[in-house]
Amino acid sequence: MHFTAQTSANGVLERDFTVGEVPGVLWSPAEGAGPAPLVLIGHGGGRDKKAPPVAGRAHLFVTRCGFHVAAIDAPGHAGRPRTAADEREVPVMQQAMATGEPVGPIVRRYNADIAERAVPEWLETLDALEELPEIGGPVGYFGLNMGTAIGVPLTAADPRIKAAVFGIFWHDDLVDTAKRITVPIEFVLQWDDQHIPRESGLALFDAFASAEKTLHANAGKHKEVPRFEADSAVRFFARHLGKAETV
Amino acid sequence: MHFTAQTSANGVLERDFTVGEVPGVLWSPAEGAGPAPLVLIGHGGGRDKKAPPVAGRAHLFVTRCGFHVAAIDAPGHAGRPRTAADEREVPVMQQAMATGEPVGPIVRRYNADIAERAVPEWLETLDALEELPEIGGPVGYFGLNMGTAIGVPLTAADPRIKAAVFGIFWHDDLVDTAKRITVPIEFVLQWDDQHIPRESGLALFDAFASAEKTLHANAGKHKEVPRFEADSAVRFFARHLGKAETV
Q1: Residue of A nearest to B189 (CA)
Q2: Residue of A82, A93, B59, B138 with fewest CB within 10 Å of its CB?
Q3: How much of chain B is in helix, strand and coil states, percent to nearest 5?
Q4: ipTM reported for the complex surpasses 0.85
């Protein structure tokens, strides 16, 4: 793990890093007070590790809970090398979005391909992050959209992840993996999603074997997740990662 | 409106009152700071206006938001006069619970009867409460179980109610009324409710015409609503009744 850049603002230390070929970013309390839990954030499709929804939530988790937060660029994203699948699938997906065709089959197929590549990268990144002395305690995962397509198999694969926020994704390819997950889950669904059938989102929530799981379904379309869900995720991780919310 | 008793503890002033024959209780900030919004709480079946889930939430709304909170005993409850319907239905319901028969048809029928009597009582109570100088601003309603059976027709009938928390009830008799409600709704559903079919709860949530509505579905049985839903209701009313949450 190599740190490549560092800035600090509003009580948050932001450090860019690489693990192998994978570029990442680690947000931490500017004034560390001993080892603290870590939340991993998986960004959405077509975005990158510092996209506003990622950076915004990271700042909340750091400033309100004192957690560390890490994000990495997904395979094929943000200038990373693209495979034949990336070259083939991205234009197909963009065309479907432009013409109003159903995007579900394409997004699911392509995101499953990305997840296969992304899970080992996350595992290596987590190994490296856990060697830092300032990181200690349980790990959480937050990711909607493609962040769920990657996060469900990651959470099933890594027992260090003790709580996760997922949502805004189809059930088809994830149900069998979700059935192996038992950690607390908060699941976000848009009630009027124009891409994901309501029943599909409900079926994915239903599949998790977790004794504690909560569905937050909000009126609105695919991209209209209300801002107050970010606050809810703060409280969810504060409950499950063992630090009290400070604000 | 007559105040009949008054106590104060932990920053909360508690005043018993009657409006006509209806006994009620009003919780208020012990140190008033000008007119503040009001939240009405409808208690569950077989309970009363000071049942622990009512009093507990009332204290949260008062101490964290500075709101006033009122509850009244439902018709046929807490020593109030019982009608022929009360005398007939309560033993039928208790027997169904004891023998494991489906309770839905009985609870729905009986709660619809109670709601017809309760709504005019709430309207009179709200008229009386609004004459108090310390009460001013929008009104909220909170009620699960029988509190929803009463609260849905009440909210549809009274435009003073600007936001409501409902849940844990069947859709059958409430859907048509819910379709007339447009204020923000938070709706609580138990994913593994042994009495209320999941589809029935989802259908009731779906019926509300509100542009802003959120479903909170939690793993667990009928009576296992998690305690953190009380905190969520605090934030919901803080967002919609115009006072910032103070803690």
Answers
A1: A215
A2: A82
A3: 40, 25, 35
A4: yes
